[in-house]
Amino acid sequence: MALRLKKCEHIQAIESVRKPLDYECEECIKTGDSWVHLRTCQSCGITLCCDSSPNKHASKHAASHEHAVIISAEPNEKWMWCYVHEQIARY
Ligand SMILES: [Zn+2]
Ligand SMILES: [Zn+2]
Ligand SMILES: [Zn+2]
Known about the structure:
alpha+beta
């Protein structure tokens, strides 16, 4: 995979970053599952668990809703990720 220097259109389209409202995976909470890290969807603002978590809710959400960009919801991390272009960007 070649490194892209230019930000993709999904990342460029984000004017203000949506922060997590609650520090928990909305889907895992329903089923009592646990997670490793949290991600917040930049299209709808939902916070879900990362790919290191058993349920990978953020990836599933992105694929089924065609919501391209998430941020890390971890308090000391400032990066976003586009699933479509597999591109990371700092903010
Ligand atoms: Zn993109
Ligand atoms: Zn989850
Ligand atoms: Zn979403």
